[in-house]
Amino acid sequence: EVQLVESGGVLVQPGRSMKLSCAASGFTFSSFPMAWVRQAPTKGLEWVATISTSGGSTYYRDSVKGRFTISRDNAKSTLYLQMDSLRSEDTATYYCTTVYYGYNWGYFDYWGQGVMVTVSS
Amino acid sequence: DIVLTQSPALAVSLGQRATISCRASESVRSSMHWYQQKSGQQPKLLIYGASNLASGVPARFSGSGSGTDFTFTIDPVEADDIATYYCQQSRNDPYTFGAGTKLELK
Fold it and tell me: Which residues, listed in sequence order, are joined to residue B69 by a DSSP beta bridge?
């Protein structure tokens, strides 16, 4: 059974940093691209970042470029999101997801339970 | 960015058909996917590639469309289907989601 378990969420002040982790199990982690998708309170879903299987390629939405860094440790089956210079608009539940690419499609097929990040003074 | 437009809410009766639409601001061909999110839970993939049922998803869920207009259908609606449904496109980067349609009971 695929399991994705996020951790690291907490209350943080604007301008500070935070690192999220996602422990994966039940599948061959190194074979799947991974992503972070977030959801602000009472709002919709928003893609944040994607990383390739090897970690050699990363992609970010414009609003987090230069502030967030996605990375992975395939030996530990763990995905990370380093978030620097946090802003109030980064307040959201962050979901770790697997990404499936095929036939010109890209979708998020497995999701973790999410971790809440609150940016407030 | 491609904008996906969904109606905010839809009220249906149990046992009836629910049809949710998603309109893209430009063609996404068949690169449209649908997710279900129940209150307090993570999203779950239901449909990929506009009309393909994800593994383990009941056959009362279906999807259709191509280009800019897509439809997601539940027939018949069961009590467990009460949730918010999101469409997502993967034709262009960045991948974008619709704002979601909340399915409610009449």
Answer: B23, B66
